[in-house]
Request: fold
Amino acid sequence: DMSVDLNSLQNVQLVREGHLAIVTVNRPAKLNALDGQTIAELDAVFAALDGDASCGAIVLTGAGEKAFIAGADISVLAKQGVLDGSDNARAGQQLTLRIENNRKPVLAAINGFALGGGLEMALACDVRFAAKTAKLGLPEVSLGIIPGYGGTQRLARLCGTGTALQLILTGDPVTADEALRVGLVNGVFEPGELLAQVKAIALKMVSRGPLALAMAKQAVRRGVHLSMQDGLALEADLFGAISSTAEMKEGMAAFLEKRKPSWLRA
Ligand code: COA
Reply:
């Protein structure tokens, strides 16, 4: 178990811009590949932001112009045996769950290669936007392994088994435009525009009710694993839970008074 000091991160940069948190994987010389330290740091950062009321939304991106995250660190994978192999997969999977279940919206700004574990991190984000020059793929079978950070599950759920099996069985990456066509990303921007555009979308989310965002996300995230009947019951429960909160009163009052709502944030 690696302990992480949020004040002296080595491979991850955390920048706060008002209510936005920009999380940058910062190992550009290795194309931001995920070694154990980087995964531990990302895990600690996402855990901290989850409980931080002043954070309204999180943008995940990669340092440098070439890569978002070029995958798990192959020099680490090369040495693993059965036991540490499953430990490695579990650590990466825990991070994807930390992203997916985070109370805050998480937006991926895919600025370059999103391969293997890198694409799997993006798949755990709520929405994905890519630079036109980005390449996205799951090349694991070309290394004699399979995706281990949730890729076999989340890609199939997001894009269907046909697209998932094409990417997973060929190992070949797709372009950003192809990723947009198959629903793997929500939008494509010029490389120089990407981060500003993703921040603008994040700010749009931050302008909405924070509790409503968390509950809406939870309804969708938990609902996909349920039957329609159970999912609708969950939605009704959450709808009830948010009714008559201070946030709801402020949202309704602001509409009726023709003003912008002022949300309760730290
Ligand atoms: N793990 C460890 N190191 C990685 C890495 C990874 N996943 N991806 C890139 N790197 C390292 C390279 O080894 C190289 O390090 P070096 O300068 O010390 O030799 C550095 O990052 C730059 O990468 P390089 O391969 O020289 O860049 P490129 O432009 O020629 O190729 C890629 C870019 C992304 C096509 C290529 O790096 C690649 O195929 N990476 C592996 C992708 C992958 O299979 N990921 C899934 C892992 S499960």
Remarks:
- The mean pLDDT is 96.
